[in-house]
Records
---
Amino acid sequence: MSTDNIVNPLDFHKQLEEVDRIFQFVQIMDETGKIVNEDLMPDLSDDQLIALFKDMLWSRALNDRSTILARQGRLGFFAPTAGQEASQLASHFAFEKEDVLLPGYRDIPQLIKHGLPVHKAFLWSRGHIEGNKYPEDLHAIPPQIIIGAQFVQAAGVGLGLKKRNKNNVAFTYTGDGGSSQGDVYEGINFAGAFKANVVFYILNNGYAISTPRDKQTAATTLAQKAVAAGIPGIQVDGMDALAVYAVSKAAREWALAGNGPVVIEAVTSRFKPHSLSGDDPKRYRDQASFDEWDKKDPLIRFRNYLTEKGLWDEEQEVALMGEVEEQLQEAVKLADETPRQKVSEFLEVMFEKPTPNITKQLETFKTKEEQ
């Protein structure tokens, strides 16, 4: 028997090289919008390509409007999303309305596209109870604030979908910092063991607030963390909408076929702070870092691609952005017109059945509110 291909188990360098070889970087469209991997091109119609780009433009506009509102003190917590439009919206584009979304706090764009009214997203940021009252046909939970906890929840939801023979999956997101949390491994491990219908996303934007990715783990990729759970992992250019969609669609099909979950690492960037409540990226990132990622802007890349195909022009974009701005202004108005939350309303939803001490507090506050 030939031993040429047998790897010495004590050759640790060779083991690491094999992992690096397996987890190659998937890209379809380069930074200029040119197709560099025709074999992986997704089967999207012209109308679908335009719809996806509109989603991405809308997301950037939402980010910009939310930034203004946050700086005016008209939002609470806000995590900017500029730069992650391909990772977030192109991934979401691959799923169905009946699939279950378990978002993190930066995943508001996907949550809105999945069916949450925009004004409710604004109310959620303000901490208003109405921001967590969802339409009955919205298959999602409110954004998770505990880093990585949504991975554990997604594993359970995905198993539930499988046991009920649903032709749907759960999908969830965290950042590179979240991938260092124990909940993330527990989630992918449980889902892998039971072959649950789940697609896990790690949106690697380079920093866990201010901690660089290379200070978080010695792993060459974050996708390879799937190996420990015995499930597939893949790393994709998170600024390339076509690649993100193609990988997402393949992962969903894999899970629905009964094969279990997939971990997708989308290498992306956030152009703005981690949040607008105290983070200053200039303290831990130099200007060269911003300049380099600006060249990879997912909107510029996709715009170039569609323009070259004759599917998009400046006139279309100006018209769209006018419509989006009107929609966002209307959402702000609806949020502002929502009656202020009462303390009693907050207490009423803390538990399905109020505890004795909360019951007492309810009586006190309702009396004060009626005066």
---
Amino acid sequence: MNQYRLHERTATELMQLLNNADVTFLDVANSFVERTRLLDPLVHAWASINEEYIFTQANKMNELFKQKIQLPLLGMPIGIKDIFNTEFYPTQKGSLAWKNYRSGNDARCVSYLRQAGAIIFGKTDTAELAVHANGNTLNPYNPLHVTGSSSGGSAAAVSTAMVPLALGSQTGGSIIRPGSWCGVYAMKPSFGLIPRTGVLKTTDTLDSIGFFSRCVEDLKVMLDVLRIHGINFPIQEEKIKSYSGVKKKWRVGFCNHHLMKQTKTYVQDSLEKLKKVLSNLDGVEVVVLDLPESTTRCHELHRRIYHPCLAYYLKTECDMGPDKISDILKEIFEDAKTIPPEDYKVALHEQALLAADIEQFFSKNEVDVILMNSSDGSAPYISEPSFHNDLNPLWTMAWLPVINVPQFTCPDGLPFGLQVIGPRFSDYKLLTFLEYLKVNKMIPQQSEIASISMTQPQGLAV
């Protein structure tokens, strides 16, 4: 077993080893448990974890394997962001108000994972009620820097190879941004493609579910398992099929936008170099475009939807008293009072118009994918007040599929990502495009493994 260093393997590689009977399900579980024992006292990626429960699940998967039952995630350890209901683990939502709360059931997507044979490894740390206050997790590349919003625990757990896969959620940029700053692959599928039943609700039209991995192949497996399927979802199925097929030439857009001046110079330089290299590929046509004028108001529109929803859906937590909530959440609740209730309906209409503008932008310009930075730079220091100067809220409001690729490194050695964006329900098309880039050695086959060091400025693999 030791020759395989199992924690370093992707889920796809592990499943091949298991299918070949080269290792056992207990071997796999034990490797990630030992890894977590070693690193989590430094990273703090887990809100709750139970080794006995992990091994009980591994034994059950072994019995299923003996019965020759084929499941797409059989024996794969998966971290669950601590806003998803789980039958065994508590669901504490990063909040003092929910300390030790047990839902007694699984969120639907957790149930899908369990049905696919996954091992529910533990609950990953999250920001308070999945909003903006920093959670406990430290950045695996430098503990003085943030992980990037509420799915930071999941991103860090995958980045440090404590699990090969993890669930996250995004209402603004909480999947893509942590993926960027923790140096892993991350995917937010099209809005409405993954059911949200049993997951903390903060908004109706923004909350999205996604996942983290260390390779493209694993993203596809997760999408296959988690998305809705079948004749009961004809619109989604028809749209997904409309984007299938092999492309002879990819039309790739690089876009000018209103936040470009706030983007770090090294980010712009990295994108420019990538654009030049892509232009030399026979299978790619690069175009430079201006985003629609409506996108310049995306952050203010996001606020007009997000803050009133938080005040409404988190009223229980607000009423529990000031000692139960952070100053950041208090400020949001106060800001929500300045937004007239009748404006919410107006904002939802504007969101639909914005989504239509973006959809038309793809169609009119015949663009297959847009390539853009996932964040305005590498992870800022924990002490820095704001880190939302990117277009993640735009793509979330437009309900589009987006993927972070661990592509770049800043001058200080910290990672930041390349974001791949496509029309709504073109999720598999994005994955096909990444496979094309991988074949041409344009993106990493796998993300690097980080292990946090309290004495070194950058993460060092062990």
---
Amino acid sequence: MSYVVSSIIGIFLALVSQFNVTLDRCFLQNNPSLLPALISSDIPTLITLPEPIQISDCFSPTQTLLVLENILARTSTIEFFLDPANQIVADKRGIIIQARWSFLNKDTGRKYLFWLYFYLTPENQRQKNGGPRLIIKEIRAERR
């Protein structure tokens, strides 16, 4: 039984690790071409971000990509890292990871710091390698 549990945990951690690498590259490189790997092609995404971005709504997959592309175009990431002090919170339907994101607003030149919370769920569709993939179901932020 412990072999089964350790195997499931190993697969889960590999999925999270692969997701984290893509998420890091997306923000650090301000690279919107990586967004389709993070967003579902079927289910809507809830995005709630404070000023200066000021967004709070549930968006279709296409709208989610457009909104996030717009955010990355209007900002320049100074730092982005997943918070190692806060453990991943998991439940039956998904996990929550926390990241620290500081960025420069290109329009005003002001710097901002957000704590981002990503709620991830496994997508029903399989990846090319046959395994499930994690997708962002919800993004929330606190301004610091």
